[in-house]
Specification:
The complex is a heterodimer. By secondary structure, chain A is an alpha/beta fold. Chain A folds into 2 domains: about 20-115 and about 140-190, Rossmann fold, CATH 3.40.50; about 195-310, Nitrogenase molybdenum iron protein domain (Rossmann fold, 3-Layer(aba) Sandwich), CATH 3.40.50.1980. Helix content of chain A is about 45%, strand content about 10%. Classes of the chains: A alpha/beta, B alpha+beta. Chains A and B meet through helix 1, helix 3, helix 4 and helix 5 of A and helix 3, helix 4, strand 4, strand 6 and strand 7 of B.
């Protein structure tokens, strides 16, 4: 059979092409889905790992494209760290399937869901349907915006890195202790800065800030999206304006990847300030790591609330 | 888990007991059933208790920080995280595959004498079942409930982690020929498929069959390069026909992808397919033993500004197919292509155009040409409304002007978006 021989030759060729140089047992290659996880992984892993994020901080993490170039990144990964709670459901599964990397398959030793120890809000109870919009059945996935959850993610990472590199376990635990200590110190500072504005009402575009609001005592009074994932409608916008006037809401927080036209219009008719508030590391240029994310956001809020409340 | 081992052992013992007393009376069986049920209930209760205790312990361990502990106490229901996807829970449904149904409703107005579509039709209801089979494989099934009954569009097992970096699929699948042929109807940016697919690749549905597919990434310092080889049974409706067991279809595809910037990328492909066709069949005997050979080239240019990715994007596509079909009238060498562009100008709005030009596979001198303009509106991620104006000048000189409209809607699991 001529054909059979051709096929055999083709398959053999394919196989041969793949016998590349064996990977050196050097630094652990960590790939994260978001820049927040990459920043925390860098804190814990130090110089024993290399880390890279798939999504950029200024893009909507729900809608990342499954580009083949990401397959190449995943192919070489020793560890894949995901936000979980179905945040990446629209784009990550095909990348994992095509990665040809047994380490990072769901449930394998090189797959880490960073949410398992974190405090998760908005877990729906009772019947949920898509009439509620694009709801996340496993709770709100924007949990990294609470520094306490940042520590929880750090613990997960330190354990996992130690499991993958037992010789460096003490090193990772040491870096975790150091990271947690610095978070504790910084958190005191952030809490103190926002303490005068406890209970102040804000409106956000998407429901990205429930953990942030809970930690820092903000009261999220409404959303510009009528439902999660549904763009603003005229009627909802009118209702929101009335509601904001009634409740005297003076701050609108908008994620950098949303159009600011509607928020600006609402701001003009209610006198509220529109803040482009990055929910992720890399969301704006100045936010380069997990600490500067809170520094930036807290500072932005404090400046706005000072003028709004006169306090 | 010692308790579960004991329970398992007792269940096995009970089962063996049953087998031993093959002539046992119904009453005995019922009694045994009751015992098994009782055991099961007890086991479930124990499992639940253990899990609660474990969760409490975990919460206490992780909530070491005073604020965390206080918060956990304040909201105990939210403090214990629900199990992540893939971890077992007492709920047996957790192992059900992800299920979704996608409805495709089509309407047509205007006149088309060559290829008339009904005024209104529920063209397809596609049901998908997808799950991870075991640590080594996942399975995907796509069943199509169409006008003429149910068919298996695709149903295959994927081994993602074979040695040598191979990605293997076994089952029924679409041929890896070009781009459009690999896509399900609900992800293409038109209500119809380009003329070149209809004329040269066997019809409105993508060609494909039962077979084996092997794909491998070719390491190189420059770009993403993937080679795919498929061997199929060789029976795909109008394109290939297999009269003997050895009449197989072979498909090969080479794909190159490169990011130009973080917003722009290019995707290039070359394809080949070969198999026997049905042109030589006379009185149910394949007298001609004719073959069809296909060559294809495809290019896709995508632009999507990352920071405004939900509002604006552009995709330019083109595919060209060369078909060499042996038949009694002699070798027909036909060529066809399409070029299309789709621009997303608002979060929910897309506008596109397409130009079609294709000869027919069995008559290379007959060329059909078409132009289309498409407008798509997405109420949400899970539904879309689309209108398409299509003008087709068929090779036999008749002209069709049509307005096609489509409603598509998806219920069930949130599937991944095609790239």
């Amino acid at each position: 059979m001529k054909v059979t021989r051709i096929i055999t030759a083709l398959v053999a060729l394919l196989l041969l092409a793949g016998v590349g140089p064996a990977r050196a047992q050097g630094k652990l290659n960590v790939i994260t889905t978001t820049e927040d996880l990459a920043s925390i992984a860098q804190e814990i892993g130090g110089d024993r790992i290399t880390v890279e994020s798939i999504a950029r901080g200024y893009q909507d993490p729900h809608f990342v494209e499954a580009k083949p170039s990401f397959i190449l990144k995943l192919q070489k990964a020793d560890l894949l760290v995901v936000v979980g709670r179905e945040l990446e459901i629209g784009w990550l599964p095909p990348l994992i399937t095509q990665s040809r990397n047994s380490k990072v398959q769901v449930g394998a030793s090189g797959y880490l869901d960073a949410s398992t120890q974190a405090r998760i809000l908005d877990i729906p109870t009772g019947q949920i349907t898509r009439a509620m919009g694009d709801v996340h059945p496993q709770g709100n996935p924007h949990y990294w915006l609470d520094p306490e959850n940042g520590k929880a993610i750090g613990r997960e990472l330190a354990d996992k890195l130690g499991e993958l590199r037992p010789n460096d376990r003490a090193f990772f635990q040491q870096r975790l202790t150091d990271f947690s200590g610095r978070i504790d110190a910084a958190e005191k500072r952030w809490l103190a800065a926002l303490a005068p504005y406890k209970g102040v009402k804000v409106v956000t575009y998407h429901n990205s800030f429930p953990n942030f609001a809970e930690r820092f005592g903000l009261n999220v009074a409404g959303f510009i999206e009528p439902r999660p994932g549904i763009p603003p409608s005229p009627q909802h916008t009118l209702d929101l304006i009335n509601e904001m006037k009634q409740q005297n809401v003076k701050v609108i927080m908008v994620e950098p990847y949303f159009d600011s036209k509607t928020p600006n219009a609402i701001g003009r008719s209610t006198g509220a300030q529109v803040l482009v508030m990055p929910p992720s590391v890399g969301g704006v240029k100045m936010v380069t790591d997990y600490f500067s994310l809170f520094d930036y956001d807290v500072n932005l809020l404090v400046t706005a609330l000072k003028t709004a409340t006169g306090r | 888990m010692r308790s579960s081992t004991i329970a398992l052992a007792s269940v096995v013992a009970l089962l063996f007991g049953c087998v031993g007393q093959a002539s046992a009376q119904t009453a005995d069986v019922q009694a045994l059933q009751q015992q098994v049920d009782a055991l099961r209930a007890q086991l479930e209760l124990m499992q639940k208790q253990y899990e609660e205790r474990l969760a409490a312990l975990e919460a206490r361990l992780s909530g070491a920080a005073p604020e965390g502990a206080a918060a956990a106490a304040a909201a105990p229901a939210e403090a214990a995280p629900p199990p992540a996807a893939g971890t077992p829970t007492p709920n047996a449904k957790v192992f059900n595959p992800d299920m979704a149904v996608i409805g495709n409703f089509l309407g047509a107005a205007g006149r088309n004498r060559v290829n008339p579509a009904p005024a209104l039709e529920m063209r397809e209801s596609e049901v998908s079942f997808q799950a991870i089979v075991d640590p080594y494989a996942r399975a995907d099934f796509f069943l199509s409930f169409g006008q003429d009954g149910v068919s298996l569009e695709e149903g295959f097992l994927t081994f993602p982690t074979l040695p040598g970096g191979l990605l293997m699929k076994v089952g029924k699948m679409y041929g890896a020929f070009g781009k459009t042929n690999t896509l399900h109807s609900h992800v293409i940016p038109w209500t119809d498929r380009p003329l070149v697919m209809n004329n040269l690749l066997g019809g409105e549905e993508p060609f494909g069959d039962a077979g084996v597919s092997v794909a491998r990434l070719i390491p190189n310092p420059w770009a993403f390069l993937e080679a795919t080889g498929q061997v199929m049974r060789g029976d795909s409706e109008n394109l290939f026909h297999s009269s003997r067991r050895s009449d197989l279809t072979y498909v090969g595809h080479l794909r190159g992808y490169q990011d130009i910037t973080e917003n722009t990328n290019i995707d290039l492909g070359a394809s080949y397919a070969r198999g026997h066709n049905a042109a030589g069949i006379v009185n149910d005997v394949d007298a001609g033993r004719f073959q069809t050979e296909l060559w294809g080239a495809d290019a896709t240019l995508r632009w999507k500004p990352l920071q405004r990715s939900i509002y604006h994007s552009f995709v330019g596509r083109s595919e060209a197919v060369w078909s060499r079909r042996q038949q009694f009238a002699g070798l027909q060498e036909s060529f066809g292509y399409y070029v299309s562009g789709d621009y997303q100008f608002a979060r929910r709005w897309f506008a596109g155009v397409r130009y079609d030009d294709s000869a027919r596979a069995d008559a290379s001198s007959v060329r059909d040409r078409g132009q289309s303009a498409v407008l798509t509106y997405w109420p949400s991620e899970f539904s879309q409304v689309r209108g398409q104006y299509r003008r087709t000048r068929y090779g036999d000189a008749s002209v069709a002007n049509e307005l096609l409209f489509q409603f598509q809607f998806s219920i069930g699991a949130h599937g991944a978006h095609a790239f």
